Each structure stands twice: as C-alpha cells, then as structure tokens.
Fold this sequence. Notes:
This protein is an alpha/beta fold. Helix content is about 40%, strand content about 15%. The protein has a single domain, classed as NAD(P)-binding Rossmann-like Domain (Rossmann fold), CATH 3.40.50.720.
Amino acid sequence: MVRHGHAGHAAGVQDRVRLYPADLSDQSAIHAALEDAAPDLVFHLAGQANVPRSWQDPEGTYRTNVLGQLHLLEAVAAVCPAARVLVVGSNEEYGPPRPDELPIRETNPLRPASPYAVTKAAQDLMGYQYFLGRKLQCIRVRPFNHIGPRQDDGFVAPAFARQVAEAELGLRPPVVWVGNLAAQRDFTDVRDMVRGYYLVLTRGTPGEVYNLGSGRPVSAQALLEYFLAQAKVRLQVEVDPARFRPVDVPLVACDASKARAATGWEPTLPLERTLQDILDDWRMRVRTTRAHPSAASEPSVGR
C-alpha cells in the first residue's frame, strides 16, 4: 500500500512491484488490499513523521499514526494473521536521556516529549499488545534519525540542501536559515535503514524491540558546514526562531548491539556520501521546478 503522491518512486520496477493505493483511515480498503496481496511480511511505514508538524497539528498526528496503525493491525488479524508485521517506532520515544543513559538501549525508559513521540510510543506499545493479546507476529523497531535523497525538506539535512540549491540558481537570496545547530543526532543513511528493517523483520524475534542507528552523533552545525563547503555560491547563515522546537533533545546516540547480534546489520554508507546525494537530489529538484514552475511545492520548516 502506498501514498498516492509517492507512487512515482516505483517507476521502473512495475514488473516486480504491484501497487495497492489505500488510505489507512479506510478499513475496507486495507482489508481488500491485504486480501489481494496475501502478504507474508508487512512493513508499516505510513504516518506523519515530522516532529514540528506534530506540535502544529497534534490531533491529525494522533489520528494518522495511532488510528492508522490500529486499522492496519485489525485488518492483519482478520486477513493474514500469520504475517510478520514491522511496527516502526522512533528514537523520539526515549525523549531526553540522562548522561548515564547514553548510548540509548532498548531498556531505556520512554519519555516522549512531543505529540509525535507520544504517537510513536503508542504504536510501539500497540504492536506489543497485539503480539500478546492477538498473537500477531509483530516485531518493533526504534529507528534513530535517517536521511537520504527524496526526503522532505521539513528535516534538517534536506532543509539545508534545498536552500543551498535554490541560492545557487538565484531563486532565493544567498542566505541559509537555521534553527538549533547545537543539537546532535544519530544519522543513518535511509538505504542502510531500509536494509535494517528487512533484516529485523525476517531475522528478529516477534514481540521484541530493536534499535537501529549508527551510534555516531553528529551536530546540525556539522551538517551545515558540509553543505556550505559544497555550495557553488558564498552563503551567509541566519537564525530563524520558527525552526526551533518547543522541546529539543541536546544529544542522541544509539546502541544497536541487539539488532546487530540478531541480524548482523551494520550501516555501510558514510555520512559524506549521504549528504552529497541529498544535495544532488535537491539540485535536480530545483532545476526541474525552475523548468516546470507548476511542480513547485511549499517549503516547510523544522528538523
């Protein structure tokens, strides 16, 4: 099942992929798609994933993330109860860790500090409840920050990359607007993360939860410096208060040893490769938008 607007990402693989457009608020559509597909593996990745947006629209975030998963798990229980289901949570569930709790392990307490984080904790616990109470083969994963080409510019790396790409073409003043540059996050390339999802779902133990992350915190300042160094024009940096979160965690670091032991997963792509791919992706998007203005989208803020 795919979000209609992203169906084009499957171009070129139609001979290997069958698409079932469905809205998780429509239980009959979910049932029909599952009955037709008869899956052995279900990767539940639909949802509202932007933390700042969750502060702006908490009700919509709860509805999309929590009720959407409820509808999906009910459909799985009715149609394909033997399927393995990957319930994707977030490191945001852990909230602000104490210094003695780093790196973050699966046994750390959950202290969700945003509406988004609360919804991910609810999805996580719901997956465990359906494992215990409905005997579904749910495996939970808590991915830390993952980035890569095609990511929405509501996140820090693509937000920087888009501004650089637009400034290079003269589509905006030579200024990069930033939020909290001191925050350190645990970044993993999305291509490594997707491989981790597959390994966890196929090799992990139902009912268990696994962290996925690089274990190497990097500041937003370091990401910015990379993009500024790659820019083809001289840029200045300005602080935008709107890009700060109401609650921000200063440092995040992942302990993924449980996933490594169970699956053998390790991140393989270096951060510099990921950042360059993000910048190249936004340069291409900005050129396309310039050639076809109707393809333009509204910029967003956040990280």
